């Protein structure tokens, strides 16, 4: 994450001097800089929905839920 390197060089703190929101949560984002805020879809449900659509041969648009995981970077 280049933004964290730049922040360190400029002595800026995420969540205090600037905010970070990242797509798609990972375990690493929980740890980086005390936690990076993420906006992520429910990949498990997406997989189940896709399997059902393939199995039933239905072509449609499906809305998949997402969640905002607020951490110290915001």
What this model shows, in words?
The protein is an alpha+beta fold. 36% of the residues lie in helices and 16% in strands. The protein contains 3 helices and 3 strands. It has helices at residues 2-9, 27-31, 43-56, and strands spanning 21-23, 37-41, 66-69. Strands 1-2-3 form a 3-stranded mixed β-sheet, with no helix packed on it. Strand 1 (21-23), helix 2 (27-31) and strand 2 form a beta-alpha-beta unit. The protein is rod-shaped, with a radius of gyration of 17 Å.
Q: Could you give a short description of this structure?
A:
By secondary structure, the chain is α+β, with helices and mostly antiparallel strands.
Question: How are the secondary structure elements laid out?
Answer:
Elements: H1 2-9, E1 21-23, H2 27-31, E2 37-41, H3 43-56, E3 66-69
Parallel strand pairs: 1-2
Antiparallel strand pairs: 2-3
Mean pLDDT: 93
**First-last Cα distance:** 16 Å
> Using only CA atoms, what is the Rg?
17 Å
Uncertain residue ranges: none
Helix fraction, binned, reads 25-40%
State the shape: rod-shaped
Strand order of the largest sheet: 1-2-3
Strand composition percent:
15-25%
Main sheet record: 3 strands, mixed
Element order: H for helix, E for strand: HEHEHE
Number of helices: 3
Give the number of DSSP strands.
3
Q: Look at the helices and sheets and give the structural class.
A: alpha+beta
Q: What attributes does this structure have?
A:
single chain, 74 residues, alpha+beta, 3-stranded mixed beta sheet, 3 strands, rod-shaped
